[in-house]
Design a protein that fits this description.
Chains A, B: Keywords: Cytoplasm, DNA-binding, NAD, Repressor, Transcription, Transcription regulation. Two copies of one chain form a homodimer. Chain A contains nine helices and ten strands. With about 260 residues, chain A is α/β, with parallel strands linked by helices. The first copy, chain A, folds into two domains: about 70 residues, Arc Repressor Mutant, subunit A (Orthogonal Bundle); about 110 residues, NAD(P)-binding Rossmann-like Domain (Rossmann fold, 3-Layer(aba) Sandwich). In chain A, the strands form two sheets. Chain A has a seven-stranded mixed beta sheet. A three-stranded antiparallel beta sheet of chain A has the order 1-3-2. In chain A, helix 2 packs across helix 3 and helix 6 packs across helix 7. The longest helix of chain A is centred in the N-terminal third of the chain and has 19 residues. Chain A is globular. At the A-B interface, helix 1, helix 4, helix 5, strand 9 and strand 10 of A face helix 1, helix 4, helix 5, strand 9 and strand 10 of B. Chain A binds a DNA duplex (30 and 30 nucleotides) through helix 1, helix 3 and strand 2.
Amino acid sequence: MATGRTHRPATRSRGIPEATVARLPLYLRALTALSERSVPTVSSEELAAAAGVNSAKLRKDFSYLGSYGTRGVGYDVEYLVYQISRELGLTQDWPVVIVGIGNLGAALANYGGFASRGFRVAALIDADPAMAGKPVAGIAVQHTDELEHIIESNGVSIGVIATPAGAAQQVCDRLVAAGVTSILNFAPTVLTVPDGVDVRKVDLSIELQILAFHEQRKAGEEVGPDSGGPAAAARAAVADDRKGPDGDMPAVMPA
Amino acid sequence: MATGRTHRPATRSRGIPEATVARLPLYLRALTALSERSVPTVSSEELAAAAGVNSAKLRKDFSYLGSYGTRGVGYDVEYLVYQISRELGLTQDWPVVIVGIGNLGAALANYGGFASRGFRVAALIDADPAMAGKPVAGIAVQHTDELEHIIESNGVSIGVIATPAGAAQQVCDRLVAAGVTSILNFAPTVLTVPDGVDVRKVDLSIELQILAFHEQRKAGEEVGPDSGGPAAAARAAVADDRKGPDGDMPAVMPA
DNA sequence: CCATCTTTGTGCACGCGTTCACAAAGACAT
DNA sequence: ATGTCTTTGTGAACGCGTGCACAAAGATGG
């Protein structure tokens, strides 16, 4: 998982637990794969294995959506694909804007998995005037000045921020002011948003640090628990003495 | 957050809860920013605000690490930076390999936030022979054939998978066999790994779907609860009829 | 040295999420 | 039609994580 959700401190929207919502896309992916192999039905056991979860958990998750299974048989793959898609809101089209067309922004723009899930890249936006007009993934990059116009005329409600950390909050404010109510943030900053706006954060740096923690633990403390001492502390402190808190860039952009 | 953790079903390593570990990098980032502004001490209240969490939660998190604060004053910024860095294992150097140098792999390779956190890109690996030798982010891409050699000679224990979904499990197996024990997976697949290996998954597609769910809910069911009906189901099913389950690419690569 | 004031560290209660285990439901064979 | 067998759907127990609220600790001023 990238990183945790912001806001919405466990708002169980209409009885469907957050934890369940987070797993639905996982089930959907597994079901789509089965659908392509023309598998008509799956048991909770099989599907759970494919999705990498516990079968009891899966059944309980589905029970929040309704009773879509047949006892003694399992679940109808196609029907379940539809039900989950509908529940997630993927049967409608979601125009999305990507702000900050650096290395990461470009990678996102090129991602083919958007369309198949109901997402459509409505526009690419960058603050660099030199980028304006340049085609990325077949779409001409537009300047930040046009942000509000683009959002409003396309009815965009989901925005992706892939700018440097310094620009993220400002971009966020403009997105929200223009009508965006869901934001996927790749910049290493805590975004402040008004109530009613959802923010999800993806941060590679954090993921790696969590892995490092477990890795260190697995290494079995070969080096003493206080290895390095103050010297290491100084090194750690100095290492960051170059630019912003985190290189000032999203966890995936060039320095 | 990107997506959830795999394996390690809440293994509270040495008494530090997983949830706390996941927040430590957040605190570290906020503290680093304060350190650069030469702020000597912070209260739990201030730091919590900067990190976007509850102050009680922050204090409890820190209490797992020990008593590093001074009542009536707060926490010493430099000292806390060091303690958290040490706890996360960031005072040592972590060589990392990135496998799959597509759009995303290149973006990751260019990310400057690695070095400042103790991570070092030891090698870039790609299966395409045409890529071999090409410099990306100043590092020459190496062919997959050399994977085992690279891992072993550099003592790499953390691997990043940014390959298409179809290749991910195979790459994963090879990484693990060569000695990698922590994997950050960007490919849209459930990886199977032996016990003792940690996998974390980052998946943009899933993040967007979760946002879409909340967005739909916020939209207030303007369209009827059964909008679209079977037609939409058919559309959803057909839309995916192009390639792999998810375009067969990591949530951030070009199609 | 004492009083006051700030801020930490934590005991406790509550709620969400996970898991077990089983009864109910239905398919399928005879 | 009846019995058997498979698999779902869920009640209940448990454990983790969160947040409140407060006592203890220490700084600071007189």
